[in-house]
Amino acid sequence: EVVLEPTEITATIADVEDAPPASPTTSIIGGVAPTASASAVFSTPFVDGFPQGLEYDDCLAWGEESLFNGNYLQAAEAFRAAMLQRDDDEYPKFQLGLALFGAGRFSEAVLALDLGLRQSPSVVYRRFEIDQAFANPTEFATRLGMLERHLVRTPGDDGARFVLAYMYYFSGNLFGARSALRFLEDNGVNASYLRAMSAESEKRLTER
Question: Can you say whether the dihedral through the CA atoms of 35, 39, 106, 110 is positive or negative?
Fold first, then answer.
């Protein structure tokens, strides 16, 4: 029997307004929104030996603790397990994207974020403190630096650039988010939630 200690990680989402959601029909990863389910997209485990039979809440707790401790693939597997139990809940999809970002698996991170954003587009109108999911600001900055260096080497990786925009946006770097989003728009990327994030970035910058 697996016994989990109560996690000390708090949710990283703080709702500040319930804006009316737009129904996205386009995706960052392929024009018309893909119809593949989460179970089809993430059918392969990230690690071997992950405990079977954990309840949904235990999977989330395991994932958040592993994420905080820097065990990113273990965290990804926990969030994958939670996502497969409740495909109607967008939260583990966003957390899976965050864990995969931490692991440097950007092409998979964008898939998870895309699933979450297409399911719950109104999330772009909320405010996250996404860096608090990591052990400290330096660790988050280190992971962000890995992504930035990846994009220096492969500037045409639109999926990774969207992950960068997402991380900037939900950690409060609105200037960085705006720049990354504009780059994607100039590059012909036309996802519905991308446009919503770009408009909201401009709105928040004018509030400062």
Answer: positive
